[in-house]
Amino acid sequence: MSSEPEEEPVSVLQRFEKRLEGLVEGAFAKVFKGVVHPVEILNAMQREAEAHKAILAGGRTLVPNRYVIDLSPYDHSRLAPYAAALAQELAQSQAEFIGEQAWTVYGDVIVEIERGDGLDTGMFRVTAEVYTGGDVAPVHSSPYDQQGQPGGYPPYDQGGGYGPPPGHGAGGRNIRLVSGDGRTYPLQMGSTVIGRGDQANLRLPDVGISRRHARLDFDGAQVVLTDLGSTNGTMVNGQRVSAVALNPGDMIQLGTTTLTFRVDG
Questions:
Q1: Hey, which of 35, 38, 189, 246 would disulfide with 75, CB 3.0 to 4.6 Å?
Q2: Would you say 195 and 209 are in contact if contact means Cβ atoms under 8 Å apart?
Q3: Number of C-beta neighbours around residue 67 at 10 A
Q4: Is the dihedral of CA 128, 151, 69, 101 positive or negative?
Q5: Helix 83-100 to helix 38-51 angle, to the nearest 10 degrees?
Q6: What mean pLDDT comes out for the span 19-31?
Q7: pLDDT, tens only, 219-239
Q8: What is the spatial distance between Cα 132 and Cα 244, in angstroms, rounded to a whole number?
Q9: Residue 122 in 3-state DSSP?
């Protein structure tokens, strides 16, 4: 009864570290020297779960159950021999953490480790999603630096590091945003961050827009708009949103800028 709640994640982390030591059979220190440490990834996953709780009917608390970890190319290549086992250990530890908090998830906790081509060595990105076995509801994507601190993209990145992969709309469709003054911003497959900072893929010179204001995720079938904790919020058709699938003709407002979502073809 006297234990402090904040001690619980520590016990999960300690168990995780112990299992990692067995996983890499004494090569633990050598394997993870100079690359992102799995404990920092687990820390970040715990923060993402904490940050994206949703209260369900009956007072249950739902948190994301699918976590995609993007590692820098160097870290990914170093950890590749252990990626499958590491993902399994991360999933088990995250499930333990969620269980200790008495939170709810849909199905199993899933962790996927991927190569993030735009990330500098020692940096990683965590995308947390509620996955029900069919459609995925994207919740949030956060970059972390080598110490596992949020918002870790270095200032010299200049935003060239993590743009969406080149490509065209599915089936030749022309997916784009059109601003009030007629400027057109084509959307590519993958994720596009909107903001006024250097790290945004789609930069808008509007002081009412946060540096990383919102994200558009295009999977070839639909575009989901997610607010990235912006100061002034994101509106779609006059309603403030946290995450929403866009329909053709939807009006997105960020700061004083209005963008219309268009789909042709």
A1: 35
A2: yes
A3: 25
A4: negative
A5: 40
A6: 65
A7: 877 899 999 988 889 999 999
A8: 17
A9: coil
Rounded to the nearest 5 degrees, what angle is found at the Cα of 105, between the Cα atoms of 104 and 107?
135
Q: Write b or e for each residue in 221-255: b if 16 or more Cβ atoms lie within 10 A of its Cβ, otherwise e.
A: eebbbbbbebebbbebeeeebebbebeeebebbbb
Q: What is the pLDDT of residues 159-197, one digit of tens each?
A: 222 233 333 444 456 889 998 888 888 888 888 999 988
Length of the chain: 265
Q: Which own/partner pairs from 240-249 qualify as long-range (CB within 8 Å, at least 24 positions apart)?
A: 243/137, 243/138, 243/139, 246/216, 246/222
Whole-number Å distance between alpha carbons of 261 and 184: 10
Q: Residues 6 or more apart from 72 whose CB is under 8 A from it?
A: 36, 116, 119, 120, 121, 122, 123, 124
Please give the distance of CA 27 from its chain centroid, rounded to a whole number: 30
- CA nearest neighbour of 68 among 50, 51, 83: 83
